[in-house]
Design goal:
450 residues; Cytochrome Bc1 Complex, Chain A, domain 1; five-stranded mixed β-sheet; 17 helices; 13 strands
Length: 450
């Protein structure tokens, strides 16, 4: 790379620096965030972009392996150096982003940033560590089968999003994990770890000039390149209700998600629907919790959530009754969902939930780290930069008419996906007798099939 290219890359990395300066404590944090996460598996070198199948789990594999040997340092050497500084370095891969983060006391921060630069820019991708990581990832997938809630979300995601990026698990599958080679990891790194594909943020006791100087000194050699995030295809709309039973032996309890596709975060209907969803199942006193737990004792918890991201995410209700009460609980939640979609909010719900959301937002932006994480996520999703500051005001402006329009436009109670982790023989006969599932499509899959 020429001197001119190096200077250009350094300026590009420093541009748009998200800074949350706070000198209350001598702690410093630097975050580098890739604008792509596991959704990039569909366009990684040698996969879907060139006619092959998506390399599920590649982003997670390649980014995690960066931490295990870089800049000529072994994994043990990196760990020893971090321990000597009292610093922490982490890498996390999600669907929408990869987060590289280092934190230390101010006096050790430059040395910690130097280590982060090696990990991000100069991974060694050692063969021995790659095989160790592969074994760990396979063991994690095996452990997941003991986690009913984790299984539930994994199967729900595949069924709801289908063969689109959000339908592919971040950690991949056993077959895809075994198939990932080091050449694919190198290709992933060369393609995605480029100046234009990074967002940089800092929180804590460092000023903007100090952070920009560190970026120039340690990240000025990053390869040039543009943003790599691409539009995320929307899954096809579901028609009719489907019941997907993830059959796991000897379950005395069922884990249940009932949901549908939601509007995009940028959609004008998203905020009113978020308010409505919170009223339906987003607080301890919400309608769903009151009807399912307080009045009938069918499930210890009952909640509803509206997701957000770079593409369309989901709206779902989550309950976990006993196996014997599964059919009764499913039927109740479906009736509540239908009532919610048809009649809207009950008297008093709107005022209560608007006040709740406005007050609780303060806890989402309480610390410099909180604000940094939120502002970074907003940029990743190309949301307005002032979204976090205007949120309480915008919530307060939501009207009953806004909510009615959003619910009418977005809710599809007749086209819901019901995913259940349970023992099929125990719950299937009673589910098939429910009038609310008379015309539903039933499918049973083994819990260890994915």
């Amino acid at each position: 790379m020429t001197t001119t290219q190096t200077a250009t890359s350094a300026r590009t990395v420093a541009e748009g620096l998200i800074l949350e300066e706070n000198h209350d404590l001598p702690l410093c944090r630097l975050q580098l965030t890739l604008r792509v996460g596991a959704t990039s598996d569909q366009t990684a070198a040698g996969t879907a972009a060139s006619g092959g199948p998506p390399a599920m789990g590649l982003c997670n594999f390649a980014s995690e392996l960066q931490r295990r040997g870089a800049g000529g340092r072994s994994r043990a050497s990196i760990d020893e150096s971090l321990d000597s500084l009292g610093a922490g370095l982490s890498i996390v891969c999600w669907h929408d982003q990869v987060l590289y983060e280092v934190m230390s006391l101010r006096e050790h921060f430059e040395r910690a940033v130097e280590l982060l630069a090696d990990v991000v820019l100069r991974p060694d991708y050692p063969e021995e560590e790659s095989e160790r990581l592969r074994r760990e990832l396979l063991a994690n997938l095996d452990d997941l089968r003991d986690d009913d809630s984790g299984l539930l979300h994994r199967f729900f995601g595949r069924a709801l999003y289908g063969n689109t990026p959000y339908g592919r698990p971040v950690a991949g599958t056993e077959d895809s994990t075994r198939a990932i080679g080091l050449s694919s990891a190198w290709d992933w790194h060369r393609h995605h770890v480029v100046a234009g594909n990074l967002l940089v943020g800092s929180a804590g006791a460092m000023s903007r000039p100090e952070i920009e100087s560190l970026l120039g000194n340690y990240f000025g050699t990053i390869a040039g390149g543009p943003r790599r995030d691409e539009p995320i295809a929307a899954p096809p709309a579901r028609k009719g209700r489907k019941v997907l039973i993830v059959d796991k032996p000897e379950r005395t309890q069922s884990q249940i998600l009932i949901g549908q596709l939601a509007p995009h975060w940028k959609d004008p209907h998203w905020l009113p629907l978020h308010v409505a969803t919170t009223a339906f199942g987003g607080t301890f006193t919400a309608r769903l919790m009151d009807e399912v737990r307080a009045k009938r004792g069918l499930s210890y918890g009952a909640s509803a959530r509206l997701g957000n991201g770079r593409g369309q995410r989901s709206l779902y209700a989550h309950v976990f009754p006993s196996a014997q009460q599964t059919a009764e609980t499913v039927d109740l939640v479906l009736r509540l969902y239908e009532e919610w979609a048809e009649k809207g909010l009950r008297p008093g719900e709107l005022d209560f939930v608007k006040s709740y959301l406005q007050k609780s937002h303060a806890f989402s932006v309480q610390t410099a780290d909180d604000r940094l994480n939120l502002r970074t996520r907003l940029q990743i999703c190309d949301m307005p930069s002032d979204d976090e500051k205007t949120y309480p005001v915008r919530v307060g402006q939501v009207t009953e008419s806004d909510i009615a329009q959003a619910m009418q436009s977005c809710l599809r109670p007749d086209d819901l996906l019901i995913t259940i982790v349970a023992t099929a023989d125990t719950i299937l006969p009673s589910l098939q007798k429910l009038p609310s599932l008379k015309n539903a499509d039933f499918e049973v899959v083994p819990y260890d099939s994915y």
